[in-house]
Inverse folding.
C-alpha cells in the first residue's frame, strides 16, 4: 500500500451524520462573539476556555456547553458558526453533512427561532454553493425539558419544515427516556419529518428499543451500549439501523476510559452499520478526520474496515439512492488506488 492510513483517511470522501452545530463553537470564536455582542463569559482567554474542558460525564459537559452558547445572539453569529464548521469539514474532505441544532438552547435565552434557523440554514446554502457540501438539517429537542416545551418548539418549527429534514433528541439522557417524547415525535412524523434520537450513550439498551419502537427512528445516535443486549444487537443488524458513533466524544465524556477500550471495532465486526462522527468537535478535541485517525490507530482498524465505515456514512445518510451510489463509488475509488 503506497498511501498510509493518515493519507487514506484524509483523502476519502466523508459524510458526517452526528454533529451539533453549537458544539463547533471554537474558543477563538466564543471570545470574538462575546466581545462583538458585549456578553460576559467566565473566561479571560482562549487558553482558559480550553482548560475548562475537562469532563467527568455527559452532564458536566452540557453545563459548560450551554453556558458557552450564550455568546450566540444574531443571525450573523449563527451563520459564522456554521460556515466556520463547513470550512473545517471541507478540509477533511467531508462531502455531505446532516447537522443538529438545538433551538431551545437559544429560545430559552430570548433568541427568536427564526434568527437561529435563518443563520444556520443560510450558511449551509452558502457552503453548498461555495464548498460543494450538501446538507440536511435536523432539529433536536432538549430531553431534560418537558414534552410540552418540545411540542411548542415543534409548533414554531413546522411553518419552516421545508428547511428541516428530521427531528432528533439530545441532552441529558438518563432519566429522560425516549417514551417521554412519543407524542412529539408522532406529530413530527405526521408532518413528514424523519426521526433520529440519541440513545445508549449513557442510557441503557432499553432506551434504544424505545427510540426504535416509539419514536420510529431511522438512526440511533451513539448506541454504543447496545452490546449489553444481544437480542437488540441482532435486531439492529437485521434491520441495518445505523449507529452514529463518536469515538473522541465517548472518551472525553468517560463512556469509555480510553480509545483503546472503545467498542467501535466490536460493533463493526458484529455487522452493525457503524459510522464515525465528531459530535461536538470544539469541546472534544477533534473533527471527523481526527476521530477516524485516532480510532484507526487505537483499535488497529485495517483498510477494509475503514472502507466499510466510510461507505456506511453515505448509506446511512438521508441522501437519495443515486447520490449515495455516486459517493460510495468515490469512496471505493480512493481505496482501490491506495
Ligand atoms: N448535546 C450535544 N452533545 C451531546 C451528546 N453527546 N449527548 C447528548 N446531548 C448532546
Ligand atoms: Zn450528540
Amino acid at each position: 500500500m503506497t498511501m498510509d492510513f493518515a493519507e487514506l483517511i484524509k483523502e476519502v470522501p466523508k459524510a458526517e451524520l452526528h454533529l451539533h452545530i453549537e458544539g463547533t463553537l471554537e474558543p477563538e470564536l466564543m471570545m470574538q462573539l462575546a466581545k462583538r455582542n458585549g456578553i460576559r463569559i467566565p473566561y479571560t482567554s482562549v487558553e482558559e476556555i480550553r482548560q475548562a474542558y475537562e469532563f467527568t460525564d455527559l452532564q458536566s459537559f452540557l453545563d459548560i456547553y450551554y453556558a458557552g452558547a450564550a455568546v450566540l445572539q444574531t443571525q450573523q453569529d449563527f451563520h459564522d458558526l456554521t460556515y466556520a464548521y463547513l470550512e473545517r469539514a471541507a478540509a477533511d474532505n467531508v462531502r455531505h453533512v446532516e447537522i443538529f441544532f438545538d433551538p431551545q438552547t437559544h429560545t430559552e435565552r430570548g433568541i427568536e427561532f427564526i434568527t437561529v434557523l435563518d443563520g444556520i440554514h443560510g450558511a449551509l446554502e452558502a457552503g453548498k454553493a461555495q464548498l460543494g457540501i450538501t446538507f440536511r438539517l435536523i432539529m433536536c429537542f432538549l430531553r431534560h425539558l418537558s414534552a410540552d416545551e418540545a411540542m411548542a418548539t415543534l409548533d414554531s418549527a413546522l411553518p419552516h419544515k421545508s428547511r428541516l429534514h428530521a427531528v432528533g433528541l439530545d441532552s441529558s439522557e438518563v432519566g429522560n427516556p425516549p417514551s417521554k417524547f412519543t407524542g412529539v415525535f408522532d406529530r413530527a412524523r405526521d408532518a413528514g419529518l424523519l426521526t433520529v434520537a440519541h440513545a445508549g450513550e449513557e442510557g441503557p439498551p432499553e432506551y434504544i428499543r424505545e427510540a426504535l419502537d416509539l419514536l420510529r427512528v431511522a438512526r440511533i445516535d451513539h448506541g454504543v451500549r447496545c452490546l449489553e443486549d444481544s437480542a437488540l444487537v441482532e435486531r439492529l443488524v437485521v434491520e441495518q439501523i445505523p449507529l452514529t458513533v463518536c469515538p473522541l466524544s465517548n472518551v472525553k465524556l468517560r463512556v469509555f476510559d480510553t480509545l483503546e477500550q472503545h467498542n467501535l471495532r466490536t460493533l463493526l465486526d458484529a455487522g452493525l452499520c457503524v459510522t464515525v462522527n465528531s459530535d461536538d468537535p470544539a469541546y472534544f478535541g477533534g473533527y471527523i478526520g481526527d476521530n477516524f485517525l485516532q480510532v484507526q490507530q487505537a483499535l488497529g482498524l485495517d483498510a477494509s474496515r475503514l472502507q466499510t465505515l466510510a461507505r456506511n456514512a453515505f448509506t446511512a445518510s438521508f441522501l437519495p439512492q443515486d447520490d449515495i451510489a455516486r459517493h460510495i463509488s468515490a469512496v471505493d475509488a480512493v481505496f482501490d488506488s491506495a
